């Protein structure tokens, strides 16, 4: 599926953001900057009547609708297409003077090709091209008799012509599915004169309902059959142009004109008095009904509820999508690891906790990941790397260079150390394979409450969710996404504490090894960024990834964070990338926005980032490569940086490691062997 922007009647494609946001909803992952958008009030207009029925699917939130239906998944833009054939269209925002949404017919512009004028308004500055994407995918849909699902968006703006006003009914929700339509005509028109007196050719499209029998839900109450016609009741004439020889339908009340835009007589009416700013479509064109001729059945507008077949684990990508609540028809995203819940809170629940994925599947995925990636590491020449000798692990550290303007503070500002366990380290009793099974169980039974949270614009119709599910434990960690802290370390389940213990060992070992190696090899490091002592962690964020999930580029640069951030990866392999931020200004050497360090993260790997300035000048991202992955990341939240004394005290209490866990601390594989 692909989506394109600038669709017909679509002004809602600018995306919203949180200024302070670090992590973004990464399903879309386009990296575009997003402006904060105020939630729009859904103030009901007392002038509009209620509709006869209810939409078959609706949502307050655009992303929820895109996530829950198949024919329209355009988080941005207006038209959805598959293989260059339109499958769905959003009618939203401003309309042109001849746009119509009737009981069975929609007329709108093909859209796209407008420019943004100096006053921010969308204007046309040239004739529309047949190469325009919208024209191509809509023409293909017409040729192939493709059903096109229509969604109408509600604008709360009172003035002007908006798509929802064409419906002439009160819409209770922001995004509303109308029905299946098909395209009967695409033609060129001269657009009504613009503010500067110019007028250009653009394409218009007419769609007709496939189902002509049922009363459309969007008709105003009391007008049950207005605009509903049968096949053969009306007929629109076609006339051949004497000048160019092409045939055009007689579509205007003001008489026939040639609709072939290359013709010398294009859009010339027999009477010179016709004002193209005031012309209207005629009755025959509006009321003619055509039989939809296609062999195939139309799909239901609301897809069937998912079923967890015996050969599935429940974290394949099909299980991450939204559902349509069978009771109230609201699009409901998968917010919880455990399953779905009606977003209108009608009480409908579909519980489907993912099943445990056996190690054999993870091992196969890891082998496949290496087949695809010929090189294990991709490293820019500016990065120094070194191997360390640690029993039970292969360990590599990468030193990230300082920015040119700060070199006097040290040549390197941070290190990324990867601990890769050997097979015996992973497979021994109580090793990493067992820990993976324990984490799966804890998330399956809900002792770790993984959920997806709004990544930006919470509560607005532009709200997007994080791609992954998360749960915070220990001290509160506030980043762009507000993840509720579910457990302090006293009540956190065992696998969380076991991971904390391993990450503490990994963090301390990485700091010691990188400091020692830098001293031995005379690498000059910025000690204000990467001190040579380790501070114990007091927080753990668990992320759960389904298939096709990722965390897009972000940093861990919150001011209250300590210098070390350590992640334990369990399950499917993934790829971790680092890139320099624009402000790092490395010139050509470490080109901004280009990946400069990339490596596969395998099941059981520990990745330790050490150095606060890593997050000032670099971003990192992780893309999961299989059906189930967990990333357990520990940080130190500096309580002295929390201004509110109550929150500060809570962070200290929640992040304290209970004494019985301190005793069980992991001390590396040689100690494990010693302890039996
Ligand atoms: O999934 C991962 O390994 C990355 C986690 C991460 O980048 C983070 O929590 O900041």
Keywords:
676 residues, alpha+beta, PUA domain-like, Jelly Rolls, 9-stranded mixed β-sheet, 17% helix, elongated, disordered N terminus, binds 2-oxoglutaric acid
How far apart are the first and last residues' alpha carbons, in Å?
54 Å
* Uncertain residue segments: 1-8, 10-45
Largest sheet: 9 strands, mixed
Q: Which CATH top level class of the largest domain fits? A: Mainly Beta
CATH architecture of the largest domain: Sandwich
Structural class of the helices, strands and pairings?
A: alpha+beta
Structure description:
- The structure is a single chain.
- The protein is of the alpha+beta class and 676 residues long.
- It folds into three domains: 1-11 and 44-221, SRA-YDG (PUA domain-like), CATH 2.30.280.10; 317-351, no CATH class; 359-674, Alpha-ketoglutarate-dependent dioxygenase AlkB-like (Jelly Rolls, Sandwich).
- Strands 1, 2, 3, 4, 5, 6, 9, 10 and 11 form a nine-stranded mixed sheet that branches. Strands 19-20-21-31-28-33-26-24-25 form a nine-stranded mixed sheet.
- Strand 22 (454-456) and strand 23 form a beta hairpin.
- Helix 7 crosses helix 8 (494-520).
- The longest helix has 27 residues, at 494-520.
- The two termini are 54 Å apart.
- It binds 2-oxoglutaric acid (AKG).
- 2-oxoglutaric acid binds next to strand 26, strand 28, strand 32 and strand 33.
């Amino acid at each position: 599926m692909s989506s394109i922007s600038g669709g017909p009647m679509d002004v809602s494609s600018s995306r919203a953001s949180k200024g302070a946001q670090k992590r973004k909803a990464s399903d879309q992952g386009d990296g575009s900057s997003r402006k904060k958008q105020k939630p729009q009030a859904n103030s009901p207009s007392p002038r509009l009547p209620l509709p006869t029925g209810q939409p078959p699917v609706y949502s307050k939130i655009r992303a929820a609708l895109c996530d829950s239906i198949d024919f329209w998944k355009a988080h941005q833009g207006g038209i959805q297409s598959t293989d260059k054939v339109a499958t769905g269209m959003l009618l939203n925002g401003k309309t042109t003077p001849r746009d119509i949404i009737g009981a069975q017919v929609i007329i709108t512009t093909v859209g796209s090709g407008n420019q943004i004028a100096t006053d921010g308004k969308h204007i046309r500055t040239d004739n529309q091209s047949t190469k325009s994407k919208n024209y191509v995918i809509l023409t293909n849909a017409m040729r192939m008799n493709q059903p096109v699902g229509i969604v109408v968006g509600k604008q709360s703006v009172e003035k002007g012509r908006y798509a929802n006003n064409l419906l002439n009914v009160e819409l209770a929700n922001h995004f509303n599915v109308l029905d299946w339509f098909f395209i009967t005509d695409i033609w060129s028109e001269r657009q009504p004169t613009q503010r500067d007196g110019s007028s250009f050719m653009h394409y218009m499209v007419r769609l007709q309902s496939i189902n002509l029998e049922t009363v459309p839900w969007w008709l105003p109450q009391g007008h049950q059959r207005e605009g509903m016609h049968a096949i053969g009741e009306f007929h629109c004439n076609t006339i051949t142009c004497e000048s160019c020889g092409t045939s055009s339908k007689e579509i205007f009340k003001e008489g026939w004109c040639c609709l072939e835009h290359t013709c010398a007589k294009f859009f010339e009416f027999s009477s010179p008095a016709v004002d193209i700013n005031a012309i209207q479509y005629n009755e025959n064109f509006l009321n003619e009904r055509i039989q939809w001729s296609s062999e195939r059945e139309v799909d239901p507008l609301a897809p069937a509820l998912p079923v967890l077949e015996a050969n599935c684990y429940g974290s394949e990508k099909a299980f991450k999508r939204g559902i349509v609540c069978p009771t109230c028809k609201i699009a409901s995203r998968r917010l919880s690891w455990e399953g779905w819940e009606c977003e209108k809170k009608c009480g409908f629940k579909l519980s489907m906790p993912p099943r445990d994925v056996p190690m054999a599947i993870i091992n196969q995925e890891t082998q496949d990941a290496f087949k695809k990636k010929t090189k294990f590491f991709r490293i820019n020449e500016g990065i120094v790397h070194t191997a360390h000798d640690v029993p039970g692990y292969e360990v590599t550290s990468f030193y990230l260079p300082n920015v040119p303007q700060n070199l006097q503070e040290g040549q390197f500002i941070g290190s990324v150390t990867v601990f890769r366990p050997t097979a015996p380290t992973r497979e021994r009793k109580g090793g990493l394979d067992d820990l993976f099974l324990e984490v799966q169980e804890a998330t399956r039974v809900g002792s770790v409450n993984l959920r997806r949270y709004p990544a930006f614009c919470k509560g607005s119709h532009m709200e997007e969710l994080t791609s992954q599910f998360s749960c915070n434990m220990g001290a509160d960690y506030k980043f762009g996404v507000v993840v509720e802290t579910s457990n302090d370390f006293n009540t956190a389940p065992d696998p969380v504490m076991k991971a904390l213990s391993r990450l503490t060992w990994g963090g301390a070992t990485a700091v010691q090894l990188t400091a020692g190696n830098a001293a031995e090899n005379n690498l000059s490091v910025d000690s204000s960024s990467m001190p040579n002592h380790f501070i114990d962690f007091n927080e753990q964020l668990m992320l759960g990834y389904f298939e096709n999930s990722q965390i897009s580029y972000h940093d861990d640069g919150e001011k209250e964070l300590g210098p070390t951030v350590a992640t334990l990866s369990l399950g499917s392999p993934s790829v971790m990338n680092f890139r320099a931020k624009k402000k790092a200004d490395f010139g050509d050497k470490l080109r901004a926005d280009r990946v400069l360090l990339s490596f596969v993260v395998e099941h059981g790997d520990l990745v330790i980032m050490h150095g606060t300035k890593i997050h000032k000048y670099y971003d990192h991202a992780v893309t999961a490569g299989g059906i189930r992955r967990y990333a357990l990341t520990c940080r130190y939240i500096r309580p002295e940086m929390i201004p509110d004394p109550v929150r500060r005290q809570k962070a200290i209490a929640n992040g304290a490691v209970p004494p019985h866990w301190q005793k069980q601390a992991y001390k590396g594989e040689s100690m494990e062997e010693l302890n039996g």
